[in-house]
Amino acid sequence: MLPWWHKVLRLSPSDSGRTTGLAPRTPGLTETATFREIAIMADRALSTSRRGLLAAPLVMPALHTSAATAGPPGAAPAVRTSPAAAPGALAAHAARIGALIRESNHVDSAITVQGVRGNRQHPFCLRWNAITDDIVRAVPAALDVDPRTIGDVVVQLVLALDQVHEAENDTEALDPLERVAEVLRRAILLLAPLSGTDLRDMQARYFDHELGVALDGSAPA
Amino acid sequence: MSAASRRTLLAGVAGLPTAAALSAIAAAHPDAELLRACAEHAANLRAVLASPGCTDAPGGNAAWEAYQRTQEAIDTAEPVTMAGVLAKARVAMSEAVSDNLFEGEHANGFGFTAHAWAWGLVQDLVRLHGIEFEDPHTGAALRLPLDGEATS
User: Fold this and answer.
1) Which residues make Cβ contacts (< 8 Å) with residue A22, sequence separation at least 6?
2) What single-letter DSSP state applies at residue B34?
3) In terms of Cα–Cα distance, which of B83, B64, B84 is closest to B74?
4) What is the mean pLDDT of residues A58-63?
């Protein structure tokens, strides 16, 4: 198998488990880092990216555009992109989780500044743990929502991917990849009609039904 | 995980495209290459799952090499239509489901691929539909990082 991080790092599949012997190009890596260690760092870099997105409010350019180009009083605002792209059913979940992550980041910074990391009884560490618990409880609820817009799909994918990383060391957690698969399945069901694609036609053209049911659970055509 | 849920996910693998479906893909489609790669990849994934020892053979075998070829094609393609996004989502879902079905030296590899493609889909949807993220501190628009790009 050639995992994605091999491509990211331009490695050979036969390099797995060996030390790199390469000059470090990424801060924190040593010349004797194994490729597994590099992979973990690459995964964490991606996770940081996703967390950054979760912490950022989702905004729609169309909404800004409509405000800037509003016509005379009483005229309908000029919304130029599809409302399907707006955050919909998940907006409240995304806002709450984003706020929790922003607070988590601030507390994490404070823990670093105060030099109290690892001190489990310190108020900052207690607060960080409480926020983390809140996030852990909030994410499954957000993933259970049926997406209604493309913005919803984006938020759910980011949340599900973040769970893959967060569950790395949690053997009790549900398989996060199954959550990713379920988010993708629901995204396909939503996006096909939104894009004017007939789901049955798409499946008939691109997917065979010889072994099972279709994406929407229906019997093979 | 419930049996019903498992069946639903397994149906994702079962419903993979066949080579016969390729003929239905119009060459003039803006995402023709990606659609073709996704259809071929699904068939290649099926072949690899049917012969789990193939990746351990020195130099790989035909099924594995074909799988890697279409994987690379999907990695490098950038969908420009929703049809392309949907096809990529379909194969990403199949990779995610397959992660638990494969034993061997490279187990978890399908998960890595599913992970990378699902993240790519986030980028594709944002790029195609003009969704922006706003820096909560500065109000500036956030740029989506590329796969593997470290962020501070």
Assistant:
1) A31
2) H
3) B84
4) 46
Give me the amino acid identity at A6: H
Q: Scan for tokens 């984003």, then name that residue.
A: A98
Interface test with A, best of B40, B45, B98, B122 (most A CBs within 10 A): B122
Name the residue facing A8 among B5, B42, B148 (closest C-beta): B148
- Distance CA(A216)–CA(A199), nearest Å, equals 9
Please tell me whether residue A58 adopts helix, strand or coil conformation: strand
Residue A144 CB: number of other CB atoms within 10 A?
A: 10
Residues 6+ apart with CB under 8 A from B54: B48, B60, B61, B63, B64
Measured in residues, chain B has a length of 152
- For chain B, which ranges sit under pLDDT 70? 1-27, 52-60, 99-110, 132-137, 139, 141-152
Check if the beta carbon of residue A183 is closer than 8 Å to that of residue A140.
no
Q: Closest by alpha carbon to B60, among B98, B104, B113?
A: B104
ipTM > 0.85 (yes/no): no
Could you read off the pLDDT of A127-167 as tens digits, one per residue?
Answer: 999 988 888 888 888 888 888 888 788 888 888 887 776 65
Of the two residues B83 and A67, the one the predictor is more confident about is B83
pTM strictly above 0.80: no
- Gap between the Cα atoms of A187 and A206, Å rounded: 17
Q: Is the dihedral of CA B32, B28, A191, A197 positive or negative?
A: negative
Residue B142: phi, psi to the nearest 5?
-90, 135
- Residue of B5, B93, B124 best to disrupt the A interface, most CBs of A under 10 A: B93
